[in-house]
Amino acid sequence: MTEILTAAQMRAIEHIAIESGEVTGLELMERAGKGVVDAVFMQWPELSETSRRAVVLCGPGNNGGDGFVIARMLKAHGWDVRVYLLGDASKLPPDATTNFLRWQALGDVETIGDAPRLAGEADLYVDALFGTGLGRALDGAVLDWVRDRAAAKDVGAKTVAVDIPSGLCSDSGRVLGAGADVVSAQLTVSFHTAKIGHYLNVGSTTCGTLVVADIGLTSQSHDGFVDIVEGARLPSLSKSDHGHKFSNGHALVLSGGANRTGAARLAAGGALRVGAGLVTLGVPHEARAEIAAQITAVMMREIDDVVALDQMLDDPRVSALCVGPGFGLGSTQADMVRAILARKCATVLDADALTLVAQMPDMIERLHERCVLTPHAGEFARLFPDIALALERAPTSGPAYSKVDATRDAAARAGCVVLFKGPDTVIASPEGQCSVNAAVYASAAPWLATAGSGDVLAGFVTGLMARGHAAKPAAEAGAWLHAECARVFGPGMIAEDIAEQVPAVFRAIGVR
Ligand SMILES: NC(=O)C1=CN([C@@H]2O[C@H](COP(=O)(O)OP(=O)(O)OC[C@H]3O[C@@H](n4cnc5c(N)ncnc54)[C@H](OP(=O)(O)O)[C@@H]3O)[C@@H](O)[C@H]2O)[C@@H](O)CC1
Ligand SMILES: Nc1ncnc2c1ncn2[C@@H]1O[C@H](COP(=O)(O)OP(=O)(O)O)[C@@H](O)[C@H]1O
Ligand SMILES: [K+]
């Protein structure tokens, strides 16, 4: 998996490289500037054909230093470049000072308040105001500029953000301050590796296209780093040539009563498609006929109460459970969730099961390391109201509390894996290992926003756990497959279509 970093982790990597003598800060800044200019010409080849007008906004730190490098390089391409500085040049950090002086030998530096902002005033705006060092909300002349640019309706102009759009917190993808004031970029060029904030919250909608420029730093993996889930790096999902159905696991999906069995059927279909050897729907008596009419390969067993459930769970071949989709919120359902948790079996808790856990104070303690909770934002807020509040409160300073922080805190409290859904799905283990399944940028999967798609995801994760995958890898693989199925199907997809795409997705990633 590819790591994404916090600002502090990036600074540490840079520090180690500089201290070891492998590279100087000035060399890194030069490569960063070149990375941005190369990416601009790659993204907009028409800009390299004739000379253009660039407006470069430089901040008081090293992000501003990158801006001076970019200004110099664009000038070398024959561009008309105007540079605007926020703050006092004498207070720039050393490498930024060097590049400020290099630029000064070529052109003027004006103050930020004078920076052009109206329609037609520039072909390219370079946002080198703040990068990983943003510490508080935009204000003063920068805020005015950002608001004026947003209002300018300047269709021809392009904006490239250096490292991250200014105003966006690089650890959380949240805009600092109570408003939504952030530079809106069509292209963002980050360095070495993407930052967590490029993927979470509004990060992906603010950055435009995200390009990561290699600046020659070596990767330094660390246990605490957050990963992006990638199809090419999933655990093997192939079936053994010599297996039989039971060796691929038996998943039990509990259904609700008559007229609300669709969710459990979607989950069961998902579990079967990802390769569980058998899938049984546990069905209350009143829903038997309804379900029987609508299943074929999925099996059915009547389960009306805890006694019947316990009998089923006495079969050691049942290797994973899914409870929650369309399940109901009555006392029988609550007792069944308790009975399931007592078994310490691989279990996905979704939808109504999450609401039951949130309603019963004793339930959270019963969760265990083989459980996966799959809340959307509303369910998350019911389960972990204080954590959700911290995530909703407008951040006044950076780094802001992020969805990664929230999911890690929730997993630690619950003592199990939490998969916090959304285009930026975050998966965390109680030990703090964390990954993001990012259905954004080129991997966007907007058609997943459809009724029942979460039920299919719960089924995918259950099926993978039934096959023997541990909770976190199953959650990661399930989330990735879910989004990839939606990408393969494309527009017009409904929940029933998701699992149908599994064969194509499996073939594409070499599963056999
Ligand atoms: N790491 C690497 O390997 C490489 C890093 N590189 C580049 O360095 C960038 C990081 O540089 P950085 O650490 O100097 O931080 P940066 O984002 O320039 O801002 C800090 C300054 O802004 C100020 N400030 C903050 N918020 C503010 C606000 N709202 N309003 C007003 N002021 C505010 C803050 O002031 P203070 O909070 O201290 O008062 C401080 O002066 C990184 O994003 C990348 O572009 C590349 O060159 C190559 C390799
Ligand atoms: N815009 C989107 N882009 C990518 N994935 C999305 C988007 N909207 C929703 N999803 C995914 O779709 C699923 C929806 O689940 P959920 O909210 O539980 O819906 P339901 O209860 O209708 O099944 C989650 O896996 C979520 O991550
Ligand atoms: K920036």
The total of helices stands at 20
Low-confidence sequence ranges: none
Proportion of strand residues: 15-25%
* CATH homologous superfamily placement of the largest domain: Ribokinase
Radius of gyration (CA) equals: 26 Å
Q: Give the CATH architecture of the largest domain.
A: 3-Layer(aba) Sandwich
* DSSP summary, beta strand count: 18
Please report the distance between the alpha carbons of the first and last residues: 21 Å
User: Overall pLDDT, averaged?
Assistant: 96
What is the number of independent domains?
2
Q: What is the CATH first-level class name of the largest domain?
A: Alpha Beta
Spatial arrangement of strands, main beta sheet:
1-9-18-17-16-15-14-13-10-11-12
Structural class by secondary-structure content: alpha/beta
What characterizes the major β-sheet? 11 strands, mixed
Ions, cofactors and other ligands present here are: ligand NPW, adenosine-5'-diphosphate, potassium ion
| Overall geometry | elongated
Fraction of residues in H or I helices: 25-40%
Index terms:
single chain, 512 residues, alpha/beta, Rossmann fold, UDP-N-acetylmuramoyl-L-alanine:D-glutamate ligase, 2 domains, 11-stranded mixed sheet, 7-stranded parallel sheet, 16% strand, elongated, binds ligand NPW, binds adenosine-5'-diphosphate, binds potassium ion, YjeF_N_dom
